[in-house]
């Protein structure tokens, strides 16, 4: 795999990935512990997986959680207490707490964290691996914590490299989209988003790859697509919709139309089956977990009995969201109350969005085709609608004008599919334009760097 990545990645792609890795290393240590987007709860789940507890414990009232290392919880609570008091955290104090805990005997505490305990352990393999390695060397609690963040970063860099090396088109635009400052922030905390988003893109990249390789080499990729369809359903329930990407695979890869139908049915069926089984055992009910006042039964009844009002609410959500989703996906940092939550990058957000579009237009394109383009664009829009539907049912309460609980990062996959699909409608690139892609990617990197520096400057006042 490493040799394939080296052989497939272009020098500009390798250089860009290396540069964003340097930025990410700063974010890992400069962002206040457990202050990332929902990081506290993702950390609990990663810690649970690192302990070998792949399946969360079930508690009354549809709650999930489990026993976690009490020492590292004590260290984390120092930051949580400061967050709740809107106070900064001190490095020396945190180091002293970690040093004191190193001499304490190990203990377990039961913690309920249903919002992430119901997630599949697959999304936490990178961060859990980092924590396991630190545990092997009997590291202090703070070292173990940062090892988990490093593990998530290494997982992000590796999967991103694989995805880009496999994609036959739209590579630089996807590389830019998946490395917005917010995406890097997520990759350097305990968030499950990096594995979820890039794992789904890996499946779709394999589907696209079959369009450019000889017929005799496709069997390996077809098997990979079938295997990847299972974790696709385990990432999130909404991700199972992306299994329809198997329709991109050329029909001439199969001896008969019947075998093609069997292949597509197997891929989609495995994805949906794994999603249903996991969510049947560990149902995700955000309205219940976060006390939003939503009631899925009421929302489903309203959707079916008043379809006009439902369609109006969805349309209004798109109208309102189009004004802020990109800004939220570009420069959103932190998951707690102020000052640990803020948005930056207003001055560079529109420029960055324009550069992603330009990169899609001028970058290399190995092939073009109307059918795969329409499939990807359709899935992209359907996925965004599926996300809205999930939050309408599982988060929004009756009477709201728009679907609530949404964040711009939830639409990374939709944007990626639409961008890739659009590039497939364009003819193959001209060398004159292709040579400009490095310049535009460099300008985009400057925008990313500027926002990350601004964000770390803010964190310097609350983690010093």
Helix content range? 55-70%
User: Which structural class matches the secondary elements?
Assistant: mainly alpha
**Form type:** globular
Compute the CA-based radius of gyration.
22 Å
- Which strands sit side by side, in order, in the main sheet? 1-2-3
- What is the count of DSSP helices, taking H or I runs of 4+ residues? 22
> Could you state the order of secondary-structure elements as H and E?
HHHEEHHEHHHHHHHHHHHHEEHHHHH
What is the number of strand segments? Answer: 5
Strand content range? under 5%
Low-confidence blocks of residues? none
Can you tell me the number of structural domains? 1
Distance between the termini: 41 Å
Mean pLDDT metric: 91
Question: What characterizes the major β-sheet?
Answer: 3 strands, antiparallel
What's a concise summary of this model?
The chain is mainly alpha-helical. The chain is globular.
Structure, described:
The strands form two sheets. The chain has a three-stranded antiparallel β-sheet. A two-stranded antiparallel sheet has the order 4-5. The model has no long low-confidence stretch (mean pLDDT 91). Helix 3 crosses helix 7 (125-136), helix 8 (141-166) packs parallel to helix 11 and helix 9 (171-177) runs antiparallel to helix 20 (412-424). The protein is globular, with a radius of gyration of 22 Å. The relative contact order is 0.13. The chain is mainly alpha-helical. The protein contains 22 helices and five strands. A hairpin with an 8-residue loop joins strand 4 (332-333) and strand 5 (342-343). It has one domain (2-459).
